[in-house]
Amino acid sequence: MSGFGEFEFIARLLAPLSKGHAGAFALKDDAAVIAPRAGHELVVTADALVAGRHFLESDDPALVARKALRANLSDLAAMGATPLWYMTSLVWPLGTDRALQARFVEGLKADQERFGLTLIGGDTTAGEGPFTVAVTAFGEVPAGKAVTRAGARPGDRLVVTGAIGDAGLGLALARGERALDGEAAAALLERHYLPTPRIALAPALREHARAAIDVSDGLVADAGHVAAASGLALALRLEDMPVSPAAGEWLASQPDEAAARLRLATSGDDYELACALAPERVDAFIAACREAGVEAKQAGIFGAGEGVTVSFEGRTLPVERGGFTHF
Fold this sequence. Notes:
This protein is 34% helix and 25% strand.
């Protein structure tokens, strides 16, 4: 069975996702009308995912949709924003079956309901190339309160939420490159396919953090972006990097813990937050995270200079690459 026609796909599958925002005009116009609440500013982000580059061509389209949306929500969370709306532009491979298209929209519907946002527009087409998903997400933040990368000061602590490296291990499992069974394998695959954007931490981030970023490409690379944007150096201690029980099970099987932890710290798609906090703010922020159901841990310190120094139990480690790059 061939896929939906362009306008049938929009009218039957996408338009219902726009209910709740009058300015989306049921996706019948070429643009939408939006405005933040009084006293707030808009925060806008965009990400593109390409089959074979950012996800496997065999992946469930519903999971692809949810991950694409969550990647953008993670960017909003890192700036302390609350999600409101999103747009999605799709390039379907020619001949895509309508069941796969419907499955993709099921994923969008599930997560927009979970995270409380509405589809307001986008574009859809087909081509010879791989399946490509581009999402633009809109959020709001109290005026002047957006958290950026460029705010860390010498002596600030690097605090990381959740656990690092799970998604990279999950990808290796999905590719058949790692052997891990049972609950640990299931947990890692879950973290790879369905990362949790830390939207719930936005208020705590605005209150306590001087700078922040989401860990999408790898902790070393992304925390390094905060250091660079702030004009500082970062000393990252891998023994303090938070890891999950599932990743801990994998670590226990590795002959070189330092090298294994570096692998976790340079893999991507965790969508945790890496934050710069004044020393006196660390405990309050960690407590606020815990109250929201998320653990957080201090893993480094910012100082004068430039670059990222990565160490394990006092030994400096050579780093060939800090994380995933898109080119």
